[in-house]
Amino acid sequence: MERILIPGTNEVSKEIADSISRELLLKACKPIHKVFPDGESYIRIPCNIKNKEAIVVQSFIQPQDKSFFEAILIGDALREGGISSSILVVPYMAYARQDKVFLEGEPISIRVVMKTLRMLYERLFVVEIHKEESLKYFGEGAVNISPYTHMARQLGLESSNIAILSPDIGALNRAKSLSQFLKCSYDYLVKKRDRITGDIVMEPKELDVNNKDIVVVDDIISTGGTIATASSILRKHGARHIYVLVAHAIMLGEAIGKLRKSGVDEIYATNTLPKKDGIKYIDIGPLIANYLSAYG
Amino acid sequence: MERILIPGTNEVSKEIADSISRELLLKACKPIHKVFPDGESYIRIPCNIKNKEAIVVQSFIQPQDKSFFEAILIGDALREGGISSSILVVPYMAYARQDKVFLEGEPISIRVVMKTLRMLYERLFVVEIHKEESLKYFGEGAVNISPYTHMARQLGLESSNIAILSPDIGALNRAKSLSQFLKCSYDYLVKKRDRITGDIVMEPKELDVNNKDIVVVDDIISTGGTIATASSILRKHGARHIYVLVAHAIMLGEAIGKLRKSGVDEIYATNTLPKKDGIKYIDIGPLIANYLSAYG
Question: CATH topology of B3-145 equal to that of B149-282?
């Protein structure tokens, strides 16, 4: 079936769509997009899409609700235009952290996102969705793309003395699979009470970081607080370099400065969110293209 | 079944919910609502809702996509909390004007809104949805609330010399049913070319407006351009007073000033949208309460 690429409505999505288009030699059809003076979004797909398979790339960046809504508008326009099947690529999935009821009375926000998308798209590719279990709300045809080995490969990460750290035990699998790829040790951070000062500190469970290059792996960094705290301690314990590898760098307010000050040498992120100074970005497009080929 | 009222996340919705609560003597459960620093919305329903019927009031005011999304978050939280059935009241329905494909490649935006709401709500009440046919996308259980006779009654509109005007033939039924209530004549505006100047002007199809009080009825006013043009001409033709009765007063930019300058004496709107100076508002809450009682 002929495939056609539809770049989404924001710059992030357009850049990634460009990259996918180059990798897969796919023709792109740019939607006509505007926001009316009253705030409503308008979308039009100005191409013949009948009986084709569309790949829509839309990152759910801020304003998340608008990015999401425009994705479903595009999905509706595609169905209306006689598309044969629609694939949605979401480089950054919003609302993924509200994936369960933490306090009684809460919604499972990612569930309503997934169920709504499922009405309009047959398949969904998401880059690092915080908790892979959330894909079940979409049902069959949803795929999570883990970016860390792609990032490590692009960076040419290797060192005889490298170790991978997860900020918590819950995300240990991320660190583990990256360490398997790099053939190095891994560990996670635990909260401990300093015996002398009584302060709560973050330390590796067992790993001796002295003279090692430490790569902290995380899916999303918002305020950077946890990693900054951990980083100062890793430095004290003699870590040689500290690198942060993050899929989605939200980096609110002073997050980047705080991380740098705490001793982080470099922050690497994928380009799923708008770019900020002080971060080195790795294009996620080629990795998404690989997945799209494999699942073709 | 015990009913519980859930006011929505914006001031407009809270005011209307208050009014419904007073009319129906319903207990309200105010959701906990915040927007995280990254822009995502958070909702929690802090009441026991198990086996009850919820009435959620959420007007889809700007930012429309967020208002809409928060309505589905509330819907999900209610289902999660074991609600027996959920009714959504939408005083202002966004995206109602994209109710068909005007140009090839467009979505039917109101369709995706309706279908998404239907996943989470059993019934839907909307104040003046532009085209009543759009309710079919929700399916059974959707009701349109026409506000004009309620408005006329609240205003005590009566005059021996009153006439109702629709801005176009498409919306003639609005004018017709209000004229039946007021026992007066009605007509619609047509575009005509002035025989002397060659200008396009808006004139009543047949009605002689001389010395009459004219009530122009419309569902939504955005820029006010059409009605301002019509109003100047009605004045020239000797209209005594010109009143505008509008369900949803968006009134972008200088719309209100433009209408006043064109000869409109007073603009009456319902409180489905944020309030602006120069408009007299009529509370829609009691009318919605009537509908909720009738469909109880």
Answer: yes
Catalytic residue, candidates B27, B191, B261, B275 = B191
- The mean pLDDT of A252-278, rounded to a whole number, is 97
- Is the predicted pLDDT of residue A242 greater than 80, yes or no? yes
In angstroms, the separation between the Cα of residue A55 and the nearest Cα of chain B is 16
Provide the whole-model pTM. Answer: 0.96
Q: Annotated catalytic, A191?
A: yes
What count of other Cβ atoms lies within 10 Å of the Cβ of residue B208? 12
The domain spans of chain A are 3-145, 149-282
Would the CB atoms of B253 and A81 count as touching at under 8 Å?
A: no
Give SS3 for B278. coil
**C-alpha dihedral over B132, B136, B139, B145, to 10 degrees?**
0
Residue window 48-77, chain B: list those with CB within 8 Å of chain A: 62-66, 68-69, 72-77
What would the CATH number be for the domain defined by B3-145? Answer: 3.40.50.2020
Q: Quick check: B125 and B291 in contact, CB under 8 A?
A: yes
ipTM, interface predicted TM-score of the complex: 0.95
Correct CATH for A149-282 of 3.40.50.2020, 3.30.43.10, 3.30.1490.10, 3.10.129.10: 3.40.50.2020
Q: Encode pLDDT of B3-21 as tens digits.
A: 999 999 999 999 999 999 9
Q: What's the average model confidence in pLDDT over B138-166?
A: 94
The C-alpha angle A46, A88, A173, rounded to 5 degrees, equals 155
The answer to whether the Cβ–Cβ distance between A107 and B74 falls below 8 Å is yes
pLDDT tens, position by position, B234-253? 999 999 999 999 999 999 99
